[in-house]
Design brief:
Blueprint lengths: L1 E7 L2 E6 L14 E3 L4 E3 L1 H18 L9 E4 L4 H14 L6 E7 L6 H15 L3 E5 H5 L3 H7 L7 H19 L4 E3 L4 H14 L2 H6 L13 E3 L7 H10 L16 H15 L3 H19 L8 E2 L6 E2 L5 H12 L1
Helix pairs in contact: 1-9, 2-9, 7-10, 7-11
Bound molecules: iron/sulfur cluster and zinc ion (ZN).
Length: about 325
């Protein structure tokens, strides 16, 4: 018997109730991976997800022996699953792993996820450091939303600009040289489509997963879950009893990303495996753009306000802060 469960919006999972796992042929299957036809028990499913992440890490040389890895953990399923998997991968050398968390300052939303992260980190023995927008930029996301000059300025793009900077600063202060984020395969395809429809070809090149050093301290960003479907991360978290925040941020804007997410989930339901095909094509396109456009060797100047690396005279963080402060 096949049980269909709607997880979030258009995201659906299929749970097989009565048949045996096709891998171990011993236990009852709990999941049908529709695009490959594999029926898996809990143990084989967990192993398969972890194996995929490890394969991605080694395929793109994401983590090297002496690296210190800062995992950006928000309290959502993806980042907590990533931390759990990396803890297993780097397990015996705990000093190489640290969880970093950004407190955007969103009343009634962020407090819950901060405590989820703190408790999970302490349960698996990984240090957790937190930085807030207020500490770094002098204003919380609540304040930024009050000061936003127009509703046309997207809350998530403003917040994303601040978050990327906060993660870099926190990782540097932990002397980490690798930042790992929980982006999954669905995120990767959506990002490609967003860049494609915005005509931003250079950014497509940047998404190719071989890590490139940036900034004065030579940070690298990696996405070890980028070859795993979002729904499999939900199932992994549930099966491993990893608590995560399911509640949505009150400022989440109905971006084009949500529209692509919903379309892609509907397509996948009708044509299982279509996301994988798209992922493989996008990877080839991104690689071509990255290495033929010389995107990686492009010289960056420094922001004339904060002195951090910037593609223009003033970086996007300082431009956004300037706009908000003027309004205040
Ligand atoms: Fe920030 Fe948007 Fe995420 Fe809310 S949903 S935390 S505003 S990026
Ligand atoms: Zn700046």
């Amino acid at each position: 018997m096949l049980k269909t469960i709607k997880v979030q919006g258009s995201l659906t999972i299929f749970i097989q109730m009565t048949k045996l796992c096709i891998k171990c042929k011993k236990n009852n299957a709990i999941y049908l991976r529709k695009y490959s036809g594999e029926l898996m028990c809990k143990k084989c499913f967990i192993r398969s997800v972890e194996h995929k992440a490890k394969k991605t890490i080694s395929k793109f040389s994401m983590i090297r022996h002496a690296d210190r890895v800062a995992v950006a953990v928000s309290g959502g399923k993806d980042s907590l699953v990533l931390l759990n998997i990396l803890k297993n991968v780097l397990g015996e050398v705990n000093s190489r792993l640290i969880a970093i968390t950004v407190d955007e300052g969103i009343k009634g939303y962020r407090d819950e996820s901060l405590s989820i992260v703190r408790n999970f980190c302490s349960s698996i023995g990984v240090e957790n450091r937190v930085v807030s927008y207020t500490d770094l930029f002098g204003l919380s996301m609540d304040k930024a939303m009050e000061s936003r000059p127009s509703e046309k300025i997207s809350s998530c793009s403003m917040c994303g600009t601040f978050r990327r900077r906060a993660i870099d600063v926190l990782a540097e202060s932990c002397e980490a040289n690798v930042i790992a984020t929980g982006h999954n395969l669905d995120d990767y395809i959506q990002t490609f489509l967003i860049n494609l429809f915005a005509g931003d070809i250079e950014r497509i090149g940047w998404t190719y997963p071989e890590p490139v050093e940036y900034g004065a301290s030579g940070l690298k960003k990696i996405k070890p879950l980028m070859e795993i479907y979002e729904k499999e991360l939900v199932i992994y978290a549930i099966q491993m009893n990893i608590p995560f925040q399911a509640e949505e941020c009150p400022y989440k804007d109905e971006s084009i990303r949500s529209a692509f997410r919903s379309h892609l989930n509907n397509l996948e339901n009708i044509h299982p495996g279509i996301k994988y095909n798209a992922y493989n094509s996008i990877l080839k396109i991104a690689k071509k753009i990255k290495y033929t456009n010389d995107v990686i060797n492009r010289e960056h100047s420094r922001c004339s306000v904060c002195n951090r690396e910037s593609s223009g005279d003033i970086c996007s963080v300082c431009r956004t802060l300037n706009m908000l402060v003027k309004k205040i």
